[in-house]
Amino acid sequence: MERRLRITVDGKAYVVTVEELDAGPLAPPPAMVLGATVPQAVAAAPVAAAPTASAAHGVGDVVAPLGGTVQSVLVTVGQRVAEGEKLAVLEAMKMNTQISAPRAGQVARVEVRAGQVVETGQLLLVIA
């Protein structure tokens, strides 16, 4: 017997056809077998939250929202920028991410160059 199923992987839906090879009676799950014991769940130890990028940097600092490769830096030191203006482009997993100015100001420092690999939270530039 064939069945069509929809599965979603990383937000993308796929329709697949599966064929049931053995339509005979299913064996009971292990917990249903007489005399079987069910293992007790063990609580996971609490995990501390990762520090946020904004906690480690100043008000005018622009940090990488994700790890990747700097494709281009579109501003220079001394340039005035408006809030929302495109500052740089990062590429990660074949996807480009535009980095925009969080506020208006003047570019005080540029810490990266095209082709450089950056990590999440790494300082890209400073707007004074």
How would you describe what is shown here?
The chain has 128 residues and is mainly beta. Helices cover 3% and strands 41% of the residues. It contains 1 helix and 10 strands. It has a 4-stranded antiparallel β-sheet, with no helix packed on it. Strands 7-6-4-9 form a 4-stranded antiparallel β-sheet, with no helix packed on it. Strands 1-2 form a two-stranded antiparallel ribbon.
Please describe the topology of this protein.
Layout: E1 2-9, E2 12-19, H1 53-56, E3 61-63, E4 68-73, E5 80-81, E6 86-92, E7 95-100, E8 105-110, E9 117-118, E10 123-127
Antiparallel strand pairs: 1-2, 3-10, 4-6, 4-9, 5-8, 6-7, 8-10
What is the beta-strand fraction?
35-45%
Mean pLDDT: 81
Q: How far apart are the first and last residues' alpha carbons, in Å? A: 67 Å
Strand order of the largest sheet: 3-10-8-5
Helix content: under 10%
Note the overall shape.
elongated
Our count of helices gives 1
Rg over C-alpha atoms, rounded to the nearest angstrom:
25 Å
* Biggest pleated-sheet summary: 4 strands, antiparallel
| Number of beta strands | 10
Q: Spans of 5+ residues with little confidence (pLDDT < 50)? A: 50-55
User: What structural class do helix, strand and pairing data support?
Assistant: mainly beta
Secondary-structure element series: EEHEEEEEEEE
